[in-house]
Amino acid sequence: MNIFESNWAKTLSFFTVFVVALAAVFNYLENSDTDEIPRMDLNAMEENYRQKNRTCFILGASGETGKALLKEIVERNIFSKITLIGRRQLTFEDKAYENLVQNVVDFEKLDEYAEAFQGHDVGYCCLGTTKAKAGAEGFVRVDHDYVLKSAELAKAGGCSHFHLESSKGADKTSSFLYLKTKGQVEAEIEDLGFERFSVYRPAVLLVDREESRPAEWVAQKFLGAFSSVFPTMSIPITVVARAMVVNTLKDGEKRVEILENKAICNLGDKK
Ligand SMILES: NC(=O)c1ccc[n+]([C@@H]2O[C@H](COP(=O)([O-])OP(=O)(O)OC[C@H]3O[C@@H](n4cnc5c(N)ncnc54)[C@H](OP(=O)(O)O)[C@@H]3O)[C@@H](O)[C@H]2O)c1
C-alpha cells in the first residue's frame, strides 16, 4: 500500500467511526428525554377495559398497520363491537373475525356516509397512500382530506378517543409535502377537541409488504440490518399495532399525546 492509499484508508476508517459515534450520540439524545413506561399488568388492564363495553372502528384495516392492529384487537377481545370502515369489503378466513361489522364507503362523498361513523367510542386511523402511487394531489387527498373528514364525522358521531397513525418528523411548517401534510392533519384533528387524541409518529415501518415499494424496501433492509445502531429510525409494524392497543387501555392520559418512535417501541414491547 502506498502513502496515498494508507492515508485514504485511515481517513475512511476515521469517517466511519465518526458517523457511528454521531449516530450513537443522536440516539442517546433522542432517547434521554423519553419517560420510562411504568410496569403494567396488561391482563388486568384488558379485563378492566372489557368491562366498559366499548366499541371501535378502524380505517385502513386492509393496510399493513391496519391488519396488524385488527389482529391485536381481535385477539385481545377488548371491544364489544369492531367496525371496519374502508373503500372495499374484506374477506377473512379466520372464525375469530366473523363478528366484525364492515362499512364500505366512498371517501369522495364521506358526508353521505356519516352514519358509518356514528356510535363508536374509539377510532383508529391507519389510512395513507404515497406520492409515488397517487401523485402529490392524490396523496394530500387521502392523507389529509379523507383523514380529516373521517375524524370530523367520528367526532360528530360520538367518538371520544381518536388514534392517528402519523409519521416521524411530521411538521406542519416543513417544506416537504409528506411531513407537512402529516403535521397539518395532526394539528387540525387536535382542534376538533376529542376527549383524547393519540398521535403515533413511527419511523420507517419494518414489514414484508404485499405491495412493491422499492425505495421503502431498500430503507427497510438497511435500517433493519443496522437497527442496533439506528434504533429510532425504524420499527416493526407489529410493535406499532401493539402500542396503539396498549395505549388504548391506559385511561386517564393527557387529552392530546404525541408518541414518538421510542415511546411507541416502549409501549409496543409490552406483551
Ligand atoms: N411506510 C412507512 O415506513 C411509514 C412510516 C411512518 C408512517 N407511515 C404512515 O403510516 C400509515 C399506515 O401506513 P401503512 O404502510 O400501514 O399503510 P398501507 O399498507 O399503505 O395501507 C393504507 C391503507 O389506506 C387505504 N387507502 C389508500 N389509498 C386509499 C384511497 N384512495 N381511498 C381509500 N382508502 C385508501 C388502503 O386501502 P386499500 O387496501 O383499499 O388500498 C389501506 O387500508 C400511513 O399514513 C403512512 O403514511 C408509514
From TrEMBL:
InterPro entries in the cross-refs = NAD(P)-bd_dom, NAD(P)-bd_dom_sf
Q: Which residues form a coiled coil?
A: none
Q: Which gene encodes it?
A: LOC109092607
State the species of origin: Cyprinus carpio (Common carp)
Q: Which GO terms describe its biological process?
A: import into nucleus
Q: Which GO terms describe its cellular component?
A: cytoplasm
Sample GO molecular function, one term: catalytic activity
Quaternary structure annotation from Swiss-Prot or TrEMBL: Monomer. Forms homodimers during oxidative stress. Interacts (via N-terminus) with elongation factor EEF1A1 (via middle-region); the interaction is direct and competes with EEF1A1 binding to guanyl-nucleotide exchange factor EEF1B2, thereby inhibiting GDP for GTP exchange and reactivation of EEF1A1. Interacts with nuclear transport receptors XPO4, IPO5/RANBP5, IPO7, IPO9 and KPNB1 as well as GCN1L1/GCN1 and LRPPRC probably through their HEAT repeats. Binds NCOA5/CIA.
Q: What sections of the protein cross the membrane? A: 12-29
Q: What is the lineage of its organism?
A: Eukaryota, Metazoa, Chordata, Craniata, Vertebrata
Residues forming the NAD(P)-binding domain are 60-208
> Which key words tag this protein in UniProt?
Acetylation, Disulfide bond, Membrane, NADP, Transmembrane, Transmembrane helix
Pfam families linked:
NAD_binding_10
Q: What is this protein called?
A: Protein HTATIP2
Source organism's superkingdom? Eukaryota
